[in-house]
Amino acid sequence: MQDPLRVVVADDHPVILFGAEHALLKFPGLQVVGCARQSTELVKMLQTAACDVLVTDLAMPGGQYGDGLQLIGYLRRNFPNLPIVVLTMLENAALLKRLSELGVTSVVNKSDDLSHIGLAVQYVSRNLEYMSPSVKASLDALRMNSGGKSDEVMLSRRELEVVRLFVSGMTIKEISEQLNRSIKTISTQKNTAMRKLGIDRDSELFQYAQSNGLLNLSSHARDNTGDVT
C-alpha cells in the first residue's frame, strides 16, 4: 500500500484553514500533518516535520519570513524540492507570471470549490501543473487578449510611480498635485497599469501591490522600477 502524501496547510484565516484541511481529508491518499497561521510557524514546521506538499495562502502577514512573493521566494530557496500549491483570491496576469517564474505550478482561487485543493496536491506531487477553474479562465482570457503572445508585463516608471502612490492611500487628485501632472494623465496611467497587469478592480490592485511588496516600498525609491513582473 502506498504511503499517504503528507501535506502542510498554511492560512491566516481560521475558516479557510479549517475548510482546506477538511477538504484534503476527503482524499484517501492525503494526510494533513500540520497547520500554520503565519510564516514563522510555517517555516518552523517545514524544518521539523516531513512534508510532501505545501498548501499555502499567498497573503499571510505577520510572520518573520513575510508573505506574498517574498515568502514564496524564501520557500523556493530553502525548500527547493517541495511542491507548493498557492491559495489566493488574486489571479491577475502579472502575479501568475511571477509565481510561475518562482517555480509554482499550481494556483487555487479561494472562490473555487475547496475540493480543487486536493486535486492540486495530487497533481503537483506528480510534477504536473494544476490551476483551479477561475484561475484557468483568467489565463485563457489573457492568452486570447494577447493573441497568444507571451510578452512580459512591463510597467513604465511613471505608471509604477502612480500605482505606488495610489495604493499608499492617495487619491488621483492628490497624486496629480504631487507629481504635477493632470488628473486625466494620472487616471490614464493608472488604468494603463491595471490593464497591463490584467486587473479590473482597485481591490485587486491593492492585493497585487501587497503580494509584490509595493506597499513596503517608498514612493521615492525609483531605481530599477521599470519592471514589476
TrEMBL record:
Q: Does the keyword Cytoplasm apply?
A: no
Q: Which SMART domains match?
A: HTH_LUXR (SM00421), REC (SM00448)
The alphabetized UniProt keywords are: DNA-binding, Phosphoprotein
- Residues bearing 4-aspartylphosphate are D57
Is the keyword Lipid metabolism assigned to this protein?
no
Instruction: Name one molecular function that GO assigns to this entry.
Output: DNA binding
Enumerate the spans annotated as Response regulatory domain.
Answer: 6-125
Residue ranges annotated as transmembrane are none
The record's listing under CDD domains reads: LuxR_C_like (cd06170), REC_NarL-like (cd17535)
Residues covered by the HTH luxR-type domain: 148-213
Q: What is this protein called?
A: Transcriptional regulatory protein RcsB
Question: What is the protein's species of origin?
Answer: Paraburkholderia ultramafica
